Structures are given as C-alpha cells and as structure tokens.
C-alpha cells in the first residue's frame, strides 16, 4: 500500500487555503501561522483606521496581561473568583466615576462591547415596566422605547429582537441630536425608557440630556407616569467624567437609571469590552438573573453571553490602575486638543464646514461647503484611502438624509505629526478632486440600515 508523501516545508508554505471544504491534512504550526497571516496582509492598517472608535494600541505590559489571561473562562466564577472580584471592583469604580449615589449598592457587569450592555439595559427596563403594568392591572403587551434618529444600530436591534415598538424621533438638517422638542409626540404610558446619547456616532455630540430629563420630570408631574432615562455613553462615558467634571449627564440626574460605555473605545482597551452600570441594584430585575452550578460551584449569570475569556477585563483593570483620573484626564485632553487642531487645519482649507459645533469628544465631523459641486465626501474618503487612511463617509439619518458627512475619530495614539500628515492628505485629495472631479455615490442602504461606530 503506497503512502502519500508528506509536503515539504516549501510546499507547506505555498499551500492555498481551501475555500469550500474543510482542510484535510495537517501542516506545521509555523506554516499554518504564515498562511493565515498572509491571507490578511491587505487588510487596512488599524492605526490608520480613523473610521473606528475602537482602541488599536495598548502598552506591552497590558498586552502581556491579556496574553496571560486569554485562556481563562471569565464566567467560571468558582474557579476564577479573583477575576470576578476584579470585575465587581471596577463596577464600583464606574458607579463612582459616573456619580452614582453613595447610599445605593451599584449593580453592573462587563460585557462584550456596548451592544450587549445596551441589550441588558433595555431588557431590565422592559421587565420593570411590564411588572409595574401588571401590578397595576394594566395591559403590558405594547412596550415602546423612545430615542433619536442619531441612535446607534444596537438599539434598533434591541427593539426588533425583543418586541419593543421603536419610536425614533427624526433628525433635521442643522440639528443632529435628540432634544425635548418632539417628546410629547412619542412618549406615552407604554414607554419603557428614553435613551439619550453621550457622544453620538454621527457627530460626536451629546443629546440634550438635561432638557430631556427635565421634560420627563414635568411629564411625570402632569401624568403620574415615571419614565427612566438610559444614557448610551458608548463613546462619551470615558470622556465626560474627566474633561467636564461639572457637566451633569450621569447619575447626578435622578432619572438616569442606567449607563453603558465601551471599554474598547475611550476606555482604551482592545475590543471587545463594554460596561453596563445601574444606578442601584434594585433596577436590574431579579428575573433576568440565572444561577448555574455545572461549572463547579453555584454562580449567578445575567449577561447575554456566557463563556468568554478574561483578557479584556483584566486589561481594563490595568488601564484604570495605570492611569487613574489624572492619567485619563491628560490623555483625553490631549486627544480632544488634537481633534480641534485637525478641524482647524481642515476648515482653513476652505473645503469644509464643521457639523459638531461642540467639540466634546475627539470626533471631527465635516461636510463639504455648498460651493464644492464636482465631488462629495465619499470621493474624499476613497481618495485618501490610497494613502492608507480609512475615514467614514455617510449620509445622515432621517430626516436629514440629504446631508452627507466625513467623520474622523481622533484616537489617543495619534500625535501632531500624524495629524498634520492626515490634514495634508485630505486637502491634497480635495485639490485633486477639484481638478478631476469625483464619481462616488452614497451606498444604497437597506430599509433598516444605519451607521455603525
């Protein structure tokens, strides 16, 4: 019986990745690594991907810690109690950072990004609303959630996946954030909560959180209906506390019941890590907590995901301890200063107008001036891609679809030299397009599509 010859080392490295069928034979670890690595060579450089809010640099010590904990199953609290204890300490830190009441026991969890955190918050508010309605002998079959057209796609997912009517207040040109202006048309007794954003995806601005809060107070006084406020701080949750300590957007507002934030954005940790923090433990419905004992000892679990590695959670502990309030304040201030520097350079080019009048988080949102008529923001994005930069170009949500934007997320790894190079490449792209014209068209979105961060 003839034996098939094993591939030589040179043949191993030249193997193609099967496209349709599961691989048959075995090859060396070195060859497998090389083949997989080379398949990704033409991906974008994460350091130049300024379309994304996601952290792309961490210090060697943080990477070492992540490597040491990547094989730990975080959910197994019985086997890894110190990992769970560290997470719970950070829940208390975040409750403190966001000015939670000192006399209340906080409740929260690390999640796989803000999407899971938002889902948990939405479920808690839905269950609380439903139980209250049933206790009052009222119909509990038609829950709704009110938010603005600038909402991130996760909230639309939540409402569809968990049968909550979406009441999304449209935007309008010149105002790209949720205010109290139209709440009376959307809020009613079936509203489980209103979601306001701290650091929105499209322009980086905050919704008018104080105005919305005050409107809900007045609504309760008029109707007797108390509606909680959830703050989606995916981007702003790790900027506002450090740069604007006197700005009341958080648990200082009594109606704010829950806040989410992304540790993998301005929390400065690699993806994916989110946080959900409730004002007090009683707000997270006990019915959403499960108790399991098949991992060794009995553990409570209330997240949508189950098994996950502990790497990002441990990395977040490192970042909080490494930087503290002082360090985060310095990093965020430098990052916002760099964003202002970039927007000034681009405005001086006379091609762009600024969309976010308030530079609260490190996002530069631009639109081309009306006198630019032979190319658009999509052309600019495509042209600078030739230099390696990835910048978001998108149409605004309803009812401001006629406005297109170019968005640049200025993350902490960028310095002034990089900012100047980026500005020059954007202006050079505009100069080229001015002479030669562009031909990019906005991508066609499905009915329920929306921007992402």
Summarize the structure in words.
The model is unreliable at 447-453 (pLDDT under 50). This protein has 2 domains: 63-319, Type I PLP-dependent aspartate aminotransferase-like (Major domain) (Aspartate Aminotransferase, domain 2, 3-Layer(aba) Sandwich); 324-436, Alpha-Beta Complex (Aspartate Aminotransferase, domain 1). It has a 7-stranded mixed beta sheet, with helices on both faces. Strands 10-11-13-12 form a 4-stranded antiparallel beta sheet. The chain has 453 residues and is an alpha/beta fold. Helices cover 37% and strands 14% of the residues.
The CATH class name of the largest domain reads Alpha Beta
User: What gap, in angstroms, lies between the N and C termini?
Assistant: 58 Å
> What amount of the residues lies in strands?
5-15%
Count the helices. How many? Answer: 12
Whole-number tally of structural domains? 2
Biggest β-sheet: strands ordered side by side in the sheet: 1-7-6-5-4-2-3
CATH fold assignment of the largest domain: Aspartate Aminotransferase, domain 2
Order of helices and strands: HHHHEHEHEHEHEHEEEEHEEHEEH
What integer value in Å does the Rg equal? 24 Å
Q: What is the H level of CATH, i.e. the homologous superfamily of the largest domain?
A: Type I PLP-dependent aspartate aminotransferase-like (Major domain)
CATH architecture of the largest domain: 3-Layer(aba) Sandwich
Averaged pLDDT, please? 93
Helix content: 25-40%
Counted beta strands: 13
Low-pLDDT stretches? 447-453
Q: For the report, how would you describe the main beta sheet?
A: 7 strands, mixed
